[in-house]
Write a structure and sequence with these properties.
With 624 residues, this protein is mostly helical. Helix content is 57%, strand content 0%. The protein contains 25 helices and no strands. The longest helix is centred in the last third of the chain and has 41 residues.
């Protein structure tokens, strides 16, 4: 569902049954559960390719589509074996290495960007937990008022950097802002006027020298390093030396790295391997992300800060079975005002980004391709008959599309540790799958509502926890030694993925956007099976058992039906029910497709960057 691994499904839109054939060899036997068209044997997990080792290609020619690619599977699987030098080829090794790999090489990629706004985010976290927040903002102590104003000022500056290109002023690590924004307490003033009606509200003073919120934020900054004694799911402690992972064996080999069959740019930075020492790992990670995404660090930091704040506000719509006091401010007027302050410019910026992408796509559209609509007026101008035709064309295009460069990397380059990285990021949605979809199932009863509810019911395993889709996702993570706590890997997420999650929150929480959500869900269900077949193949190659890989197998089976169901029983009937507004379904469909592709490209860049960091740091250590 959109509510489950939105970034995962949209990331590599429609890879159909791609079995990382660059490592195809006689030892790789593809299961009939992966390719029903082939009478092949079960994959032997004992033949798992060396961890995160990029192999030589098997000579597969470049294919223009996943459908053409399928026809090469049998021949490629018969070619001579390509033995990859590497660590012990067993699941135990992967399980013990996955968590240290993520902590040592994946986590630093986002660390520098998150640090730029770390103080303000910590202050915001304390405000979330402040009892009677709205009342204290008007009548409480100066510490609470200053904290709220400080967050608002940081948000205003981040909005300028992220959405308008104005980079004047900067956020310092000590919590002060050099931007001259005048009275930046717009949301606070609005709170006074709406909540209390008398406009009262003490004049905001400079940062108080003490106070509970400021003190708590300072403590959080001092405690930034994770507790060193915490035991990781893989059975080792956070101290990398205690994990006993042989990184040299994993990465230092003659064919250590080659980027096969992908158009993604090289992620090499100007720093040499010897410069990638532990003290510089965050800077190295930031440099690689900046090079891979062509986005300056301060812009990435601004986007990340804004999307993380939105996510932390939006997540209050779900129940997490935690301390009930965590929800004290779920209906806070100040939080709602802050959310609106971010969402307005963000949504306008997203529309501009999608229009630019649609204009570029229009240059390559064929006669039978869906229209690349540029601007809201183009959507509104369509007749109901044209809308139905466009929806059908989108179904034909997205059910089995050609491979993108990001998809090509998954086919030819991503190793098992990269797969662990992907699962860790996807877990933020995967472990609470379909939660957001549940928000749109209430209301009047009709055939459309029941069709959407049937999809939700299957996502929830028809009420059986053992069959709930998130339970299968958890099983995959457990088998790979990953942390199965909800949001354990929130700091790994590229802002592009968080933007997709927040978009989903927006269109499910506001009934006015119901048609946009119906369109987005239609794309998600149509496109899903082609993607999940690829993930199932990658999971099998990493040595996952049939039970642990059941998440993908279940989605392949169910979503092939869900896609056509969403088109025929939801999208097309809604055109008849809302002929003047049905264009919003096309808008939601195209937005989800665009934002998902962007998130996928960003995630691939992060996975590649983590892999390169691991190899370069290992090489530097070996030569020291």
């Amino acid at each position: 569902m959109l509510a489950r691994t939105s970034f995962l499904q949209s990331c590599f839109t429609s890879i159909a049954l791609q079995v990382v054939l660059s490592t195809c060899c006689k030892s790789l036997k593809i299961s009939t559960s992966l390719l029903p068209c082939c009478s092949l044997q079960e994959l032997d997990s004992s033949t798992m390719i060396g961890l995160n080792r990029t192999p030589r290609p098997c000579g597969r020619p470049q294919m223009s589509s996943a459908a053409t690619f399928r026809r090469q599977v049998i021949n490629a699987s018969r070619r001579p074996a390509v033995r990859v030098l590497g660590f012990a080829n067993d699941l135990t090794t992967l399980k013990s290495a996955s968590q240290p790999y993520i902590r040592k090489f994946a986590a630093p990629l986002n660390k520098a960007a998150l640090t730029l706004y770390k103080f303000h985010e910590d202050v915001f976290d304390q405000l979330l937990l402040t009892p009677e927040l709205d009342r204290k903002l008007v009548t409480g102590d100066n510490s609470t008022k200053w904290a709220a104003a400080s967050v608002e000022a940081a948000v205003a500056e981040a909005i300028r950097i992220a959405y308008s290109g104005d980079k004047q002023g900067s956020i310092s690590l000590n919590g002060s802002s050099s931007s001259s924004s005048g009275n930046s307490s717009g949301a606070f003033s609005s709170l006074d006027a709406v909540r209390f009606g008398d406009g009262m509200g003490a004049v905001l003073q400079s940062q108080p020298s003490s106070g509970p919120i400021v003190a708590a934020a300072a403590v959080l900054q001092q405690q930034q390093p994770a507790a060193a004694d915490a035991t990781a799911p893989g059975g080792c402690k956070n101290d990398d030396e205690e994990c006993e992972v042989d990184w040299d064996a994993l990465f230092a080999s003659p064919d250590a790295y080659q980027q096969a069959g992908t158009e993604h740019k090289s992620l090499s930075s100007s720093s040499s391997s010897k410069q990638l020492i532990a003290d510089d790992v965050e800077a190295a990670g930031a440099a690689k992300v900046e090079a891979a995404t062509n986005e300056p660090l301060d812009v990435t930091a601004a986007h990340s800060f804004l999307q993380r704040l939105l996510y932390k506000i939006n997540r209050l719509n779900h129940f997490w079975y935690d301390d009930l006091r965590s929800y004290e401010n779920e209906r806070s007027i100040w939080l709602a005002s802050l959310r609106d302050t971010i969402e307005g410019p963000w949504q306008a910026w997203e529309q501009q980004q999608m229009e630019a992408a649609a204009a570029a796509e229009a240059d390559f559209a064929g006669g039978d391709a869906p229209s690349s609509l540029v601007g809201l007026d183009a959507y509104r101008a369509m007749s109901p008959e044209q809308m139905k035709e466009e929806l059908k064309k989108r179904y034909a295009r997205d059910v089995d599309p050609p491979l993108s460069p990001a998809q090509q990397y998954v086919v030819d380059g991503m190793g098992p540790l990269g797969y662990c990285h992907l699962l860790a990021v996807g877990s933020v949605d995967g472990l609470v799958e379909a939660s957001r979809q549940s928000r749109v199932c209430a209301g009047a009863a009709n055939e459309v509502a029941c069709a959407i509810f049937r999809v939700l019911m299957e996502e929830y395993g028809t009420g059986r926890y053992s069959r709930k889709h998130s339970t299968f996702y958890k099983a995959m993570m457990e088998e790979l030694g990953l942390d199965t706590k909800e949001e354990a890997y929130l700091d790994l997420l590229p802002w592009q993925w968080l933007a997709g999650a927040n978009q989903n929150f927006l269109i499910t929480e506001r009934r006015r956007h119901y048609l946009r959500y119906a369109g987005a869900l239609t794309f998600f269900e149509i496109n899903g099976p082609s993607v999940y077949k690829t993930y199932l193949a990658a999971g099998k190659r990493s040595g996952l058992s049939d039970t642990a890989a059941g998440y993908w197998a279940l989605h392949i089976k169910e979503d092939e039906r869900h896609g056509r169901q969403m088109l025929e029983e939801v999208a097309l009937p809604l055109v008849d029910m809302y002929p003047k507004d049905a264009w919003e379904m096309l808008l939601g469909y195209d937005q989800d497709r665009f934002m998902g592709a962007r998130a996928g490209s960003a995630l691939v860049a992060y996975i590649q960057a983590a892999d390169q960091m691991a190899r370069q740091m290992t090489a530097a250590g070996a030569s020291a």
